[in-house]
Amino acid sequence: MAGNFPEVWQSRVRKKLSTDHVATFLDGIDELDAQLTVDPITDKNTINIPLETFTPGVLLNNTTYPIDVEDHTDGSKTISLDKIQTLATRIGEDAALGASYDKIDSATKGHIQVINRLKFKKAIHAIAPASNTASTPIVFLPANYTSEDVYEALVALKGKFDDAQVDESGRRIVLSSRQYNKLLGDRNRFGDLLVDHNTGKVNKLVAGFEIYTYISNPYYTTAGAKLAWGAVPTTEQQASVAFQVDNIGKKTGILKQYYDAPTTTGQAHLINYRHYFIALPIKNEAIGAIVEGA
């Protein structure tokens, strides 16, 4: 077996994490320009990001000079990246000998899938507003809602974003599966609008929102409180999640492969992975939700 077995597999997994089982709703959002700090003992990944809270005063048709001077003020926030770990996989020595990319991909596909599934599910939960406020509006659908109700909710959410002075460019909404399917089912009015039927991909704007969909959106109570991360929904309803891209930050941390070489009796390799990632709103604003009817 080649001596660089662990390094080859880790490099392949790192590449596949960025291309396989990804969530498109984060496409085009740049990585935060922040130095990643890795604790040498615990491997904890953290970043320190600036909070641009300063907005200068503005003058129109001014004739008075000198212009007033304002001091620049801002702050910063330290964020810990989420840690995601997989259980170990046993790979027999015979199978690992001269392993090709096909073998690597077969053995590590499950690791890549569960890591990305969990990190993006946590991301959409973190992006969703905690409750209904003027800066984080939530719109509620009626029970037994129709495609028209979904469309009207999108228009209502647009209005609330307008009222909150959210930049019109870069508005996105990640529709829950049921809300998205409601629109698809009404092909005459919405199905053809939402989907390129040659590719099956979502590619349109509705009410000023770029349309995405995801199967693991968060849940809300009827009072508009977001269900805690990891809690199992009972009577809560799933929501679509809206945001403005400039207010969303993401950071990819380290990928660490753990590797045990074959033993005399075991004659098998053991591998698993630890990966760090975070996506979240930079400020508690320019995010919203459409909660399904009970």
Describe the structure.
The chain has 294 residues and is an alpha+beta fold. It folds into two domains: 5-123 and 250-270, no CATH class; 127-247 and 285-291, hypothetical protein PF0899 fold (2-Layer Sandwich), CATH 3.30.2320.10. The chain is built from six helices and 16 strands. Strands 6, 7, 10, 11, 12, 13 and 16 form a seven-stranded mixed sheet that branches. β8 and β9 (201-202) form a beta hairpin. The radius of gyration is 23 Å and the shape is globular. The mean pLDDT is 84.
What topology emerges from the helices and strands here?
Blueprint: H1 5-17, E1 37-38, E2 45-51, E3 75-80, E4 82-85, E5 89-92, H2 93-96, H3 101-127, E6 138-140, H4 147-163, E7 171-176, H5 177-185, H6 187-194, E8 195-196, E9 201-202, E10 205-206, E11 209-214, E12 219-220, E13 237-244, E14 248-260, E15 268-281, E16 287-291
Parallel strand pairs: 6-16, 7-11
Antiparallel strand pairs: 1-2, 2-3, 4-15, 5-15, 7-13, 8-9, 10-11, 12-13, 13-16, 14-15
